[in-house]
Amino acid sequence: MEQPTPSDQERTWAALAHLAPLVGYFVLIGQILVPLAILLFGPKTPFVQAHAKESLNGQITYTLYGLGLFLLALTVVGIVLALPLGLALLVLVLWNMVQGALAAGRGEVYRYVLILRLVP
Protein backbone atom coordinates (compact mmCIF):
# COMPACT_ATOMS: atom_id res chain seq x y z
CA MET A 1 0.00 0.00 0.00
CA GLU A 2 1.49 3.32 -1.07
CA GLN A 3 1.84 6.12 1.47
CA PRO A 4 0.25 9.46 0.63
CA THR A 5 2.64 12.14 -0.58
CA PRO A 6 3.62 14.39 2.34
CA SER A 7 2.69 18.06 2.09
CA ASP A 8 5.28 20.83 1.80
CA GLN A 9 4.70 21.70 5.45
CA GLU A 10 5.27 18.08 6.53
CA ARG A 11 8.47 17.86 4.49
CA THR A 12 9.70 21.12 6.03
CA TRP A 13 9.03 19.92 9.59
CA ALA A 14 10.74 16.60 8.84
CA ALA A 15 13.82 18.32 7.38
CA LEU A 16 13.88 20.67 10.37
CA ALA A 17 13.92 17.64 12.68
CA HIS A 18 17.20 16.58 11.07
CA LEU A 19 18.92 19.96 10.72
CA ALA A 20 17.77 21.87 13.83
CA PRO A 21 20.04 19.84 16.16
CA LEU A 22 22.97 21.70 14.55
CA VAL A 23 21.78 24.78 16.43
CA GLY A 24 21.06 22.64 19.48
CA TYR A 25 24.72 21.70 19.82
CA PHE A 26 25.36 25.20 21.18
CA VAL A 27 22.99 24.56 24.11
CA LEU A 28 23.52 21.79 26.66
CA ILE A 29 21.75 18.67 25.25
CA GLY A 30 19.93 20.94 22.80
CA GLN A 31 20.68 18.49 20.01
CA ILE A 32 18.37 16.04 21.79
CA LEU A 33 15.75 18.57 22.92
CA VAL A 34 15.06 19.98 19.44
CA PRO A 35 13.98 16.71 17.77
CA LEU A 36 12.15 15.78 20.98
CA ALA A 37 10.21 19.04 20.84
CA ILE A 38 9.30 18.40 17.19
CA LEU A 39 8.22 14.87 18.11
CA LEU A 40 6.04 16.08 20.99
CA PHE A 41 4.74 19.43 19.70
CA GLY A 42 5.15 19.30 15.92
CA PRO A 43 2.62 17.98 13.42
CA LYS A 44 1.29 14.57 14.43
CA THR A 45 1.50 13.09 10.95
CA PRO A 46 3.24 9.71 10.53
CA PHE A 47 5.83 11.23 8.16
CA VAL A 48 6.96 13.99 10.54
CA GLN A 49 6.84 11.66 13.55
CA ALA A 50 9.01 9.06 11.78
CA HIS A 51 11.65 11.66 10.88
CA ALA A 52 11.60 13.22 14.35
CA LYS A 53 12.04 9.79 15.98
CA GLU A 54 14.90 8.92 13.65
CA SER A 55 16.64 12.21 14.35
CA LEU A 56 16.06 11.84 18.09
CA ASN A 57 17.48 8.30 18.09
CA GLY A 58 20.48 9.51 16.11
CA GLN A 59 21.18 12.44 18.41
CA ILE A 60 20.88 10.32 21.56
CA THR A 61 23.24 7.73 20.07
CA TYR A 62 25.77 10.31 18.88
CA THR A 63 25.75 11.98 22.29
CA LEU A 64 26.50 8.62 23.90
CA TYR A 65 29.30 8.02 21.38
CA GLY A 66 30.73 11.47 22.17
CA LEU A 67 30.61 10.76 25.90
CA GLY A 68 32.41 7.47 25.28
CA LEU A 69 35.08 9.28 23.24
CA PHE A 70 35.51 11.85 26.03
CA LEU A 71 36.02 9.07 28.58
CA LEU A 72 38.43 7.33 26.19
CA ALA A 73 40.40 10.56 25.80
CA LEU A 74 41.04 10.58 29.55
CA THR A 75 43.41 7.65 29.11
CA VAL A 76 46.89 7.87 27.59
CA VAL A 77 46.05 5.52 24.71
CA GLY A 78 42.67 7.18 24.29
CA ILE A 79 44.19 10.56 23.51
CA VAL A 80 45.70 9.08 20.36
CA LEU A 81 42.45 7.33 19.37
CA ALA A 82 39.97 10.03 20.39
CA LEU A 83 40.94 12.56 17.70
CA PRO A 84 40.50 10.33 14.62
CA LEU A 85 37.44 8.65 16.11
CA GLY A 86 35.98 12.04 16.99
CA LEU A 87 36.50 13.28 13.43
CA ALA A 88 34.90 10.11 12.07
CA LEU A 89 31.94 10.64 14.42
CA LEU A 90 31.58 14.25 13.27
CA VAL A 91 31.50 13.18 9.63
CA LEU A 92 28.95 10.46 10.42
CA VAL A 93 26.72 12.88 12.31
CA LEU A 94 26.78 15.51 9.57
CA TRP A 95 26.31 12.93 6.81
CA ASN A 96 23.23 11.43 8.44
CA MET A 97 21.71 14.82 9.26
CA VAL A 98 22.12 16.13 5.71
CA GLN A 99 20.97 12.89 4.09
CA GLY A 100 17.95 12.77 6.40
CA ALA A 101 16.99 16.35 5.55
CA LEU A 102 17.41 15.72 1.82
CA ALA A 103 15.28 12.57 2.02
CA ALA A 104 12.62 14.48 3.97
CA GLY A 105 12.60 17.16 1.27
CA ARG A 106 11.99 14.45 -1.34
CA GLY A 107 9.18 12.97 0.78
CA GLU A 108 11.14 9.80 1.57
CA VAL A 109 11.92 8.07 4.85
CA TYR A 110 15.58 7.93 5.88
CA ARG A 111 17.26 5.59 8.38
CA TYR A 112 20.43 6.74 10.13
CA VAL A 113 23.30 4.26 10.13
CA LEU A 114 25.09 3.00 13.24
CA ILE A 115 22.53 4.20 15.79
CA LEU A 116 20.57 2.68 18.63
CA ARG A 117 16.80 2.58 18.12
CA LEU A 118 15.85 3.72 21.63
CA VAL A 119 12.65 5.60 20.72
CA PRO A 120 10.37 3.14 18.90
TrEMBL record:
Pfam families in the cross-refs: MamF_MmsF
Transmembrane segments: 20-41, 62-95
Membrane topology, as annotated: Multi-pass membrane protein
Keyword rRNA processing: no
Superkingdom of origin: Bacteria
Keywords: Membrane, Transmembrane, Transmembrane helix
Chloroplast is among the record's keywords: no
Subcellular localization: Membrane
Listed name of the protein: Orotate phosphoribosyltransferase
